[in-house]
Model the fold of this input.
Amino acid sequence: MPGGGGMGGRSMLRSMRSQDEVDGHTLHQGTARRVLEFARPYRRDITVFLVTVVLAAVIGVATPLLAGSVITAIGDQQGSIVIRLALVIAGLAVAEALLSLAQRWYSARIGEGIILDLRTRVYDHVQRMPLQFFTRTQTGALVSRLNNDVLGAQRAFTSTLSGVVSNVIQFTLTAGAMFILSWQITALSLVLLPIFIIPARRVGKRLAEITRESYQLDAKMNATMTERFGVSGALLVKLFGEPEAEAERFGRRATRVRDIGILSAMYSRTFFVAMLLVASLAQALTYGLGGWFAVQGALEVGTVVSMAMLLTRLYGPLTALSNIRVDVMSALVSFDRVFEVLDLKPAIAEKPAAVTIPRGDGRVEFRDVVFRYPSPAEVSLASLEDVATLDRTVSEPVLKGVSFTVEPGQMVALVGPSGAGKSTTSMLLSRVYDVTSGQVLVGGVDVRDATFDSLRDEIGVVTQDSHLFHETIAENLRYAKADATDAEIWAALDAAQVGDLVRDLPDGLETVVGERGYRFSGGEKQRIAIARLLLKAPSIVILDEATAHLDSESEAQVQRALAVALAGRTALVIAHRLSTVRDADQILVLEDGRIVERGRHEELIAAGGLYGELYRTQFAVAGSPQPYLEQSGPAPISSVPMRDYAADDVLPATPAGS
Done:
């Protein structure tokens, strides 16, 4: 079926596939208004776009009428009129081609602009969400919001909007012209439409079912590939020797997807064949009945030709408009799902009147800090977790009245059993989370009153599994200091005891580290992470189990790098290996969210409390690596000449007050 019929058929099929999603989603109040507000920056482009759509629809109806007039003029042997009409038709064809190009340009401009706006806003917003949001959310579902739903929202201003306007105008003009030419033939032609629409809806329902199953299987296959093709997943499969079972499981799903693809193709082809058949029958009826009228002298031959051509432009818009609700709702649902993410408020926000933390102060203070983790309903969305509802239960506090002070240049260790709240305490300092009550101060400023930039400048963190992006070594290090020179990077790598290793690599600083840094050993990754911290040059360093998963040799190398990293800086060290913090200025023992002991190593051992019990359990005295301050290699912290490591002041002088 030529012209609008094919387009109408494709639009109807797409609508049928979206029917279940639309019926199963309740729009939030005000979604349509927000969509219009979102479109405001593009209102001029949208207006021009709609004008081109209207003009194209008018030309689409005018051309068959002129063609009929040509036939009539030929019958009347009016050659000059035939030539003039042919020139007009040619001009309209050129105009329609130009309008088509203009439509595509404005459609792309509007659509791609909306994609850019939505994606950047969602990406920026998601980055500001609390850590617990990411621990609960399915990554694939979140990525889908940035891809599938954003594209669905884009269609609202391109295919859906243009389709609705074009189909309404084209159907109105076409039906009006046909009724004027011959209401009898028009009415009889429309009688055949239900013969097509009713079975098509049944086909569409079945098509929606198998399409949904196909999407689910595709999602499972994508999840399988993501897990198995990652380094950790691939290693697990190899270690347990199950590649044949994995291939068989994947093959079963892929086979079903193939079967669904064949079935879907046949349903789609059947739909189009039925549409073509009904349209052809209606056209045959037009020729037959119109021809009989022409023979009887009731119609001109040109009118019959115009009717037949107009009929091809009637069925497409009519079938598309029969599903207009689904088309509009599908676009609104996509917008609604995007707005759902944007409406989830970040738990951590910078105050409008935020102040700057004094650079290099390095003093840390916790004042009667109480903290509980937010409930799932406070930080997540049910649709992103694939659950019906989110738990709103308020959890018990993890920290219960924690108070301590770290003076500039001191090292304070947090120790205690798992789950005592050690890592949580460090996250409050770097403001990954905010306290429920109490205060955390850096340089005398409550971190909730500080600017994000000044807080990040003051604090550097090395975790037990330091993450490296799948980028070059230089790019990973410049994440801490974007304008760092190569000389500064090499100075940081040397200070972190990893410069020689990087120099021996074929590509040096341009070496791609691999997914999550898997091209390096654990100790090498940690030293690169320490180099990143040194490049940042914070006055406060947090070490969260920085050597927990390393062998003795790697740990010794990392410890030497840490000796440089801690020199002259305030340090908050979280450690399970108690021997590594024996020389800390103060050791805080946490249990069940409270500080139950505090003091130096010898004092706590003599007290015979929880610390002494933990220390004896670990047999730390007899064979553990020496603490940060006792490593062989670099000189003790007090004698480390900071400028020996940097030609361009990459490692700053000792922060003020230390």
Remarks:
- The mean pLDDT is 78.
- The first helix runs from residue 4 to 23.
- The longest strand covers residues 364-371.
- Strands lie at 364-371, 399-406, 411-415, 437-442, 445-446, 459-463, 540-544, 570-574, 586-591, 594-599.
